[in-house]
Specification:
This protein is mostly helical and 156 residues long. Helix content is 76%, strand content 4%. The chain has 7 helices and 2 strands. Strands 1-2 form a two-stranded antiparallel ribbon. Helix 2 packs antiparallel against helix 3, helix 2 packs antiparallel against helix 6 and helix 3 runs parallel beside helix 6.
């Protein structure tokens, strides 16, 4: 299935929708993002690396959802969120995709335990990624929001 076919299927299933932009949802997801990043740091301090990876990833993912709700996009699929980040917003999704892969590997499999240095790097990556998305959110204008919504609509 192509990326666009995948997005169209999610739209048909109501997993991916154009909605009214919501400052309330944007703010709620930004708070969740910061909370998960704080949790990741606490877990790191207590040598709980596996859980730390998951919290760092979700911190990044919630920042993406904040951006989406700021522009009126509802996305309930992690893979679609990664695709849309690049296709709609022209934001490099490499770090988010890597963090998602790490989360899945560490959460579901026992063969690849995380090590401190890798987790420290992931937290730093999450901090930079979240800062970049916050900057994009802060610079949103009505014109940019409309442009993103049109791009999104062309994909679904």
């Amino acid at each position: 299935m192509t990326r666009q076919g995948f997005l169209k299927k999610l739209h048909k299933d109501a997993t991916l929708q154009l909605v009214a932009p919501s400052d309330e949802m944007k703010t709620a997801y930004l708070k969740k993002s910061e909370s998960h990043l704080t949790s990741a740091r606490l877990l790191l301090d207590n040598d709980l690396f596996e859980q730390c990876v998951s919290m760092a990833y979700y911190s990044m993912y919630y920042s993406v959802l904040a951006l989406f709700f700021a522009t009126g996009i509802k996305c309930e699929n992690h893979t679609a969120a990664i695709i849309l980040l690049t296709e709609v917003f022209a934001i490099d999704n490499t770090d988010l995709e890597y963090a998602k892969t790490e989360r899945i590997d560490k959460q579901y499999y026992v063969t690849s335990a995380p090590v401190r240095d890798d987790v420290v790097t992931l937290i730093s990556t999450a901090e930079s990624f979240n800062a970049e998305l916050l900057d994009v959110i802060d610079r949103l204008t009505n014109e940019k929001i409309e442009k993103f919504r049109k791009k999104f609509t062309s994909l679904i």
